[in-house]
Amino acid sequence: MAREKDADATVRGKPAHHPGTQAKGPTRAVVIVPVLTRQPRGDDETNRPRLTRSAEARHDEAVGLARAINLDPVHTAVVTVNDPRPATLLGSGKVEEFAEIVKEKDAELVIVDHPLTPVQQRNLEKELHAKVLDRTGLILEIFGERARTKEGTLQVELAHLNYQKGRLVRSWTHLERQRGGAGFLGGPGETQIESDRRQLQEKIIKLKHELETVRRTRDLHRAKRKKVPFPVVAIVGYTNAGKSTLFNRLTGADVLAQDMLFATLDPTLRRVRLPHGTPIILSDTVGFISDLPTHLIAAFRATLEEVVEADLVIHLRDISDPDTAAQAEDVERILADLGVDAGDTKRVIEVWNKIDLLDEGNRNRLLADAADGSKGPPIAISAVTGEGIDALKAIIETRMAGELEDLTVTIEPAQFGLVDWLYRNGDIVSRTDNDDGSATISLKATQSAREEIESRLRRKNNG
User: Fold this and answer.
1) Which pTM value belongs to this model?
2) What dihedral do alpha carbons 95, 99, 105, 106 form, nearest 10°?
3) Which of 229, 243, 311, 421 has the most beta carbons within 10 angstroms of its beta carbon?
4) 448 Cβ partners below 8 Å, 6+ apart?
């Protein structure tokens, strides 16, 4: 049984850059979301069954991915697949049905929101008479359009080449053998596919060398930061969870933040001073997504090392999304692949974003349920309205610099250069100017700030 939708409204924007795109407007696409009836396997270590997503949520995400590169989904359908076909994934009847739809809608592209084998992709292109992209290929296309820095471009290109390397079985029109050796005396040479595969491999090796240079540069920058040292706080989460909006809220930056899947791709780092003066480096990372292609995880490892090396990880969730639990599981699985334990409450903070989109009853119920969990109560915020941001900053500062402590210091006249530093790095409770010219200051400061104050006073006294 297939649930289908027509979407004839044109998606405004620049045309997507796909092979075969000739029209000036957005490429017309048919989006197919296969729902396999077999339950996904559980995790290897825990044997815990993976959370399944609703068909509606999968449909909406697939359409969102298509629109993220300005495709025009002229027809969308959710199709139940009881018996996946090795040749086409879908049954022959459904393939014929979609071939008619492609023709009727004058679609140039078919998106199948499921991994396809090279053979399945080739057969579907023959039957549907249109270019076919599976979920992996579509995400790669999005990343290709989003990359802005040299590093991001290299990473996407490497992922593309690794993906294409396994696709060199599509219908070629030039499979004749090339001549080997010199002139006509040479024997049969390599086939065209072998030649293409060899050229791809050469490009892959070259890109890996270039990315290794990028990685070394990142290591140097990271080493310089550690010498200062500023703790690094990385924001991770499912795509469209609001990471860039939160990043902008915390830093005052102007990073692109849109209601769009993978609105930003390249990582951004900014220095932030927390309320009691603690400096940190905040890192906004690429969004995660279910079934993130392994090619991308491998290619973006240099970027994702910012998460691995971070002193604190903020796992941002869109708590208003009905599939928030499944999304969180996907993020935790990718973090585990990177060697980050999402259950480590000392290093990972779970933050619930878009709390403003929930009614009071649902908000209180969710917070009460979460408080009973092993991870402790999450931090509820709205990156748009600013609700809960002060509490989040306070928790980050506590994790990075310790709890606030009451402190009283007496500053001698020769040490008055420290007064300004105290005002910038603590909450001044009271100040008394003494007859001998000294000042007694009571303040609240983090453990880290207290240690710095004591160190500065000792240096002044010894000097």
Assistant:
1) 0.72
2) 140
3) 243
4) 278, 400, 401, 402
